[in-house]
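## Example record

The block below lists the input lines for one assembly entry, exactly as stored, with component labels intact.
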Amino acid sequence: MPLFKGVVPPVVTPLNERFEVDYVSFSRVIDHLLDAGVHGLFVLGSTSEVVFHDEATRVKIIEHAVEQTGGRVSIFAGVIAPTTECVIEHARNAQAAGVDAVVVTAPFYTRTSQPEIIDHFRYVREALDVPVIAYDIPVCVGTKLERATTVTLAREGAIAGLKDSSGDDGNFRYVLMDMAADPNFFAMTGSEILVDGALGMGAHGVVPGLGNVDPRGYVRLWDLCQAGDIAAARAEQERLCRLFEMVRVSLPRTSTGSAGIGAFKTAMRSLGIIDTNLMPRPQRALNGEEAARIDTILRATGLLE
Amino acid sequence: MPLFKGVVPPVVTPLNERFEVDYVSFSRVIDHLLDAGVHGLFVLGSTSEVVFHDEATRVKIIEHAVEQTGGRVSIFAGVIAPTTECVIEHARNAQAAGVDAVVVTAPFYTRTSQPEIIDHFRYVREALDVPVIAYDIPVCVGTKLERATTVTLAREGAIAGLKDSSGDDGNFRYVLMDMAADPNFFAMTGSEILVDGALGMGAHGVVPGLGNVDPRGYVRLWDLCQAGDIAAARAEQERLCRLFEMVRVSLPRTSTGSAGIGAFKTAMRSLGIIDTNLMPRPQRALNGEEAARIDTILRATGLLE
Amino acid sequence: MPLFKGVVPPVVTPLNERFEVDYVSFSRVIDHLLDAGVHGLFVLGSTSEVVFHDEATRVKIIEHAVEQTGGRVSIFAGVIAPTTECVIEHARNAQAAGVDAVVVTAPFYTRTSQPEIIDHFRYVREALDVPVIAYDIPVCVGTKLERATTVTLAREGAIAGLKDSSGDDGNFRYVLMDMAADPNFFAMTGSEILVDGALGMGAHGVVPGLGNVDPRGYVRLWDLCQAGDIAAARAEQERLCRLFEMVRVSLPRTSTGSAGIGAFKTAMRSLGIIDTNLMPRPQRALNGEEAARIDTILRATGLLE
Amino acid sequence: MPLFKGVVPPVVTPLNERFEVDYVSFSRVIDHLLDAGVHGLFVLGSTSEVVFHDEATRVKIIEHAVEQTGGRVSIFAGVIAPTTECVIEHARNAQAAGVDAVVVTAPFYTRTSQPEIIDHFRYVREALDVPVIAYDIPVCVGTKLERATTVTLAREGAIAGLKDSSGDDGNFRYVLMDMAADPNFFAMTGSEILVDGALGMGAHGVVPGLGNVDPRGYVRLWDLCQAGDIAAARAEQERLCRLFEMVRVSLPRTSTGSAGIGAFKTAMRSLGIIDTNLMPRPQRALNGEEAARIDTILRATGLLE
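Predicted structure tokens for the full assembly:
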């Protein structure tokens, strides 16, 4: 059985006005997700703004998530650091804090080859007890996990699964086909807008940033796909696509990064889940006019009255 | 007067067989550079494999460099971390350890805009006492420091200088022209092979990774350019270009990253400066055959008999 | 009703040993496709190696295709030229030769903006009587047709449809959603390996280069998707994905371009449809060993005994 | 002796209000360049908007240039077509029209490998009597001519020289070093703003689009570099850099392509050399406000009173 399947949102990290983690809001986010029926939680991913938080804060975020979740679902934690030894050090802290698996990218800032990336994951695997999930996110890391890299690591057991945020669904499909005979391997898409297609080719789940805003929508989409109700699944996916248009509202005034996470936080504030829409410095928060446009989208997609 | 000028090599960080920093070799590297007459040292840059070292090691590297240098030249230290607060935290440690300036990149892993990058440098500047040098290295960071970004920051005093490893010498020239009236601003090229051209358009110095192997060559090149002996400068630069061919010896067996720093370390081992050519995991060291080809290059360029 | 729907292969252009178009083989290709039940033909696309043929040859290819098809299905023709006036001139020839629509890219070699691309299609539209289909193929053209560009052109009637070979299925989905209310607009994917997903989000057809090798497979896939038999469609798509692996057989000995079309031609030669696997100069044909590996793939996927 | 050296501007192709070539203005452009002392002419390059003109017009442009030049300097002509046979066909026309050499790029639209590119140039070489100059312009073609490709072709005599518009001056320098022993090979930079540096590393000339606006400036820069007056050369180059800022005036309203050539045409109109600033469809001409800003630049750099 795969370790994870279903809807596993990358949990947004809310801040207070002093730019510290707002744990009260964070608890509300977790309950909001679990009440909606999500199947797991992914803390400290890119959507969680993981690279903005120091190691002590990262550990505290994990501990808080573990406690608030109380075993209701499994949790995996991103361990995002540029190189092997740093990943191992942070991953041991995450493991000690009680996560069920860690999510690890290829090295970044430095330049590595696919064979070196394979070694990277092997070293990480050897140093840990919890399973390792490979995180393919070239837009942040600068390197693609090639099909052969992922499959080599999966076949030898160095990775238990894959989170694919590469946007290369052709490559993703070949990985799924290559690993189809292994009942334990799992692969999840990081896409918000091509989930029905990804599940249709055998993906085991979805890790949608937008799931912070509308977890029920993604759970519904998952259930419809599981039930084989393709027409209804497509309709639900298209509603979520219209909702996802929020990530363009502040462009080009802000960066793409701020535009996406900033939109999620702004929507969650409108829905009463978190208190501010702030992001860590130097990311620029959405302004009042942009927030109003997001409310319009929330109303049009049935999330706000 | 500019804070730095001349030849300021990014100091290689030698390792022992246990992949720990070999401080005995490190001392030899520093003396090797200072004996050759370099004008400053840049520790914890990309060539120093900074992102492979944890914070405690980084501080120790700085302290060792400061002590070994003993005030003979000024030292700047790379503070390479993905986001603003992490940079500030590390930069304060570097400052406390006695560096004369810190070198800071745009945020990485996350995606930021030029206005957000400007804010990033402002926040870093406000938090520190030592000068900040902007480090433009899109091949690692994924973002270019645009001309207007650099010039805005320089004019308001948020940065004291620029280290340009972008490969975009046209943009570099415009920055130099925009800042020509400011006697304090300085800009250094990170190129090994276009130094005469960069100095010819007004650059204040060079930060050559290859300077670890042949610091005398770069000092000679600098002196010839200062003296206006263009023909001799070109000849010396071309000899250094032939020496620089070492960075292709292990391609495509290793990554570009390993091929470059690995070649420098291998050459330095041949020259008796450091004990191993190892790089931190997962980087692949050059093998015996590749080392022999590097020796051939060292002999052809007069560094080895 | 959309002008085109279903399976519309981009027809391979076979050559004889003198590198001239082999019209006998070409007729066999067309019959091979029509006998398999394809719903239209796309001549002079990228897979047809259109840019290797001069204008006189292009016209002759169209005329031959029109005659051989004899009205059994509709035909659209690629009009691939760098700039507006050249496209118009060639498109008029294609129109005179009897095609049902022309397929036009953004300008290439030169650099244009999205507003200039919109004007380009408007000028082409004004100059012709036949419908214009926009061809989004950034890997050849260097520019992406942005969603707003395509939708603007579609809404004002400048284009009748879209052939999307961009690999950006998220953007493709938004175009489909934006145009869903228009019963005449159609959008077809150029992907060989994500067809079930594309049809599942509302695409009106597929233009698969691999359809030259196995047109029955793509017709079957289309029929299964139309019938809503998702499981069988996925199985057929996965068989076609395994067949598509042929495009990697000659890498990196040849370019990606030669590896793909060269593989199709080699497979078609093995299947007795065309006489040579040659491509126009300077493309390198697959060699005997590579052909043998392609035969293995053909046998494994049921196309060769 | 190299076939070409010195300043060889890529000659702008002026249009009349009906978007036809304005040969009266074209004659004035040629005289304007020759009167300034340029050492050769490059017609039908990217700056000449070559890909917008059909074959008959291209031939007429060459014939007009040959006649107007009357042997005062040598002329080379761009033969810009996507693939080998098309290049050969056009190149024969150019040869027949009397050019002294042709300038040829790697194939475009299609995807080729470096070995295929080498074959491409060999086939072109075999089909012609006039010398072939390789044109490295990845921003238009999508492929870089690698150092080994250029040097292989140069050593076997398939190409007589190189025009480098790649922006990769490191690679350019290595080509110059590799070919330094061959007195016939020549390499020219396509840069407007790094000419002193390029000549300083041994380039044989410059092909500056901006040379249409200020040919005397580039001739002066060439003369100063030849004379070894580095300080005066730098000052002149910096004046030309300030003049070159005109290419940003219409951004982002127009494309980069239109912004550059459009600025040159607008400036030449202000200087009374050509009648309109029009470019072929769909390129957007600079408007009145932008023209006024260009006049300001012309005045600031001493070209307009």
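DSSP finds twelve helices and eight strands in chain B. The first strand of chain B starts at residue 6 and ends at 7.
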